[in-house]
Design brief:
Blueprint (H helix, E strand, L loop, with lengths): L1 H45 L2 E9 L5 E9 L6 E9 L6 E7 L6 E5 L2 E4 L2 E4 L5 E2 L4
Parallel strand pairs: 4-8
Antiparallel strand pairs: 1-2, 2-3, 3-4, 5-6, 6-7
Pfam families: DUF5412 (PF17428)
InterPro entries: DUF5412
Protein name: DUF5412 domain-containing protein
Length: 133
């Protein structure tokens, strides 16, 4: 009889541990989802507004550049930021960032060299940023 009670207590203990583990896992997943959702939401509402003003593609079609007009709000001036998209690769990277301007003029010298507002950029690794000029 005592052996039966020990087995019953062990079964109840196992069920309790499983139930506690399941509840803890669900709570962790809920907290992580809320954190990720909150970060995405806050990032979207506090990011500066941007408007596509120009885009161009290299002669061989390997590179595509998109220029955006950035407005950070009442306390900052306009800026232009250009993103490079490489054919068959995911994502884009900033190759040009300039302040106190509202337009972008992009002229291709060859398949790997572009002039943006007079600044020469060798692709794919070149970049211009007014903060480091």
């Amino acid at each position: 009889m005592e052996k039966f009670n020990d087995e019953l207590n062990e079964d109840e203990e196992i069920k309790r541990i499983k139930r506690t583990s399941t509840i803890a896992l669900v709570l962790v997943l809920i907290i992580l989802s809320l954190l990720i959702g909150g970060i995405v939401f806050l990032k979207s509402i506090f990011s500066p507004s941007k408007e596509l003003i120009n885009q161009t593609e290299s002669m061989d079609g390997k590179y595509k550049i998109e220029a955006y007009l950035i407005y950070g709000g009442a306390t900052t001036d306009w800026a232009v930021r250009c993103y490079l998209k490489i054919d068959n690769k995911f994502g884009k990277k900033v190759i040009y960032n300039d302040y106190h301007i509202k337009d972008s003029e992009m002229i291709w010298e060859d398949n790997d060299t572009v002039y943006i507002n007079g600044h020469k950029i060798e692709l794919p690794d070149g970049k211009y940023d007014f903060r480091y000029d």
